[in-house]
Design goal:
29% helix; alpha/beta; Aminopeptidase; 9-stranded mixed sheet; 2 domains; 7-stranded antiparallel sheet; Aminopeptidase i, Domain 2
């Protein structure tokens, strides 16, 4: 064998690509950017996913409905967790399901249940941040308010303010540097307190009546006029502040995409496009778009919930096979992002085992922290299987870890799937500035993740 055949070397995908490939990459990215702008919360991602599913011939499924071979279905779990599945002709208890799982929640600033107050000529909303954020990154950003308010009579009002150019935006104050000596002396992680992430929402006093807190009263009147809500309706609301930025091309050559929420909608979108692009009628496939990953995957819309098992049980029962045998025969790609090697912060990476941008989709055999704590560590056999699938399809892929040993680490939804006797491995897009309000990915890696998931479905 030649030296080139013997050695393993990572390579920038575009070093050996042609013009038509680059055109495909850029064309695919336009659809992804539109998805990002329309799906800044898990509820919105589910809504967009349902619309995409319907356009591709998928019909709504409710637990207990009939399931037939050749059928294509979507199951909407409480508006925040989506399952897409289709049934092939192969015996399900022998070949199992091709499962692809991603999460559709992202770090953000949530509004508290009793949030509205006035102080010193300004009105604010109290907040509680969601997921692992660097708090200092959020003050002074233009923010949009997304979510739902459920009124006392049960009526649900959709809220989205700050995305249209004619909308107002919202804002978290920061301290001016002239008075920030004490703040600057604090460690980066504690310079901004969680309780200080209060969102500015108004400043005009209510003129029609006398009384206290007239700016707050004016805000309440505006909310009542638009949504019919009163202050007590915040108690049954789910409102989140997210960056009021659109997805944009980054760099002179436009190869990168900057956006809020790449983690993990950059994997959720390729899962759906791969499922819809596949023409295979033999394998049965299941896409899971889960909520709550950023806070531990708990709750009835998170990946640790039993709803996945309920669905597999329903499918197995409908086809007259053992659910336990179906799970044992199934294979899963847990599609979540990984940290891209950043030369500006090289000290926290182990370069030989890091993911590089524009080098293809990244396989993480294990995640976790320290001594691989909290990880699904995929078997060598399954790693070999996935390698073979990707190589036969000509997919550009690489392997990686999430930083140096003992530097930190992280987890994904993989462990919540593999514990049910399902072979599972992490595959996803390398991200620059993960968990920041504005993250960055390479269009090449997004497209290759789509191709990798399509190859997995059709294998």
């Amino acid at each position: 064998m030649t030296n080139e055949q013997l050695q393993m070397k990572k390579k920038h995908v575009l070093e050996s690509s042609d013009t038509s490939y680059i055109q495909d990459v850029f064309a695919y990215a336009e659809g992804y950017k539109a998805f990002l702008d329309a799906a800044k919360t898990e509820r919105e991602a589910v809504n967009v996913g349902v619309d995409m599913a319907k356009k591709n011939g998928y019909v709504e499924y409710r637990l207990g409905d009939a399931i037939r071979r050749g059928g294509k279905y979507y199951f909407n779990n409480r508006g925040k967790n989506l399952f897409l599945f289709r049934i092939g002709t192969a015996p399900l208890d022998e070949v199992g399901l091709r499962i692809m799982a991603a999460h559709i929640d992202s770090p953000r600033i949530d509004i508290k249940q009793n949030p509205l107050y006035e102080d010193s000529g300004m009105c604010f909303l109290k907040t509680h941040y969601y997921g692992g954020i660097k708090k200092y990154q959020w003050p002074t950003l233009p923010l949009a308010l997304h979510g739902v308010v459920v009124l006392k009579d049960g009526t649900t009002k959709q809220v989205c303010i700050g995305e249209d150019e004619n909308d107002p935006i919202f804002y978290i104050n920061d301290l001016l540097p002239h008075l920030g000596q004490d703040q600057s002396a604090k460690p980066l992680g504690s310079a901004i307190a969680g309780e200080s992430l209060n969102i500015f929402v108004g400043g005009i006093p209510y003129m029609a009546e006398e009384g206290d807190d007239r700016i707050k009263m004016n805000v309440l009147h505006l909310l009542n006029e638009k949504y019919g809500m009163i202050e007590a309706d915040f108690l049954s609301a789910e409102l989140s502040a997210v960056p009021a930025f659109k997805a944009r091309d980054v760099g002179f050559d436009r190869l990168f995409i900057g956006a809020y929420g790449h983690d993990d909608r950059v994997c959720a979108y390729p899962e759906m496009t791969a499922l819809f692009a596949s023409t295979d009628t033999v394998n049965s496939s299941l896409v899971i778009l889960a909520d709550k990953e950023e806070t531990g995957s708990d709750g009835n819309t998170g990946m640790s919930a039993d709803v996945m098992l309920d669905l597999i049980d329903e499918i197995s029962h409908a086809l007259g096979v053992s659910a336990a045998r179906v799970r044992a025969a199934s294979k899963c790609l847990s599609a979540d992002v990984t940290a891209a090697y950043d030369p500006n912060f090289s000290e926290v990476y182990e370069k030989r085992n890091s993911a590089f941008v524009s080098h293809g989709t990244a396989i993480c055999k294990f995640t976790g922290s320290r001594g691989k704590s909290g990880t699904n560590d995929a078997s060598a056999e399954f790693m070999g299987y996935v390698r073979g699938v990707f190589d036969r399809a000509g997919v550009a892929w690489q392997t990686c870890e999430l930083g140096k040993v003992d530097q930190g680490g992280g987890g994904t939804v993989a462990k919540f799937i593999s514990k049910h006797n399902i072979d599972t491995i992490d595959v996803g897009v390398p991200v620059i500035s993960m968990h920041a309000p504005y993250e960055m990915v390479s269009k090449v890696d997004v497209y290759e993740t789509h191709r990798a998931l399509l190859a997995f479905i059709d294998a």
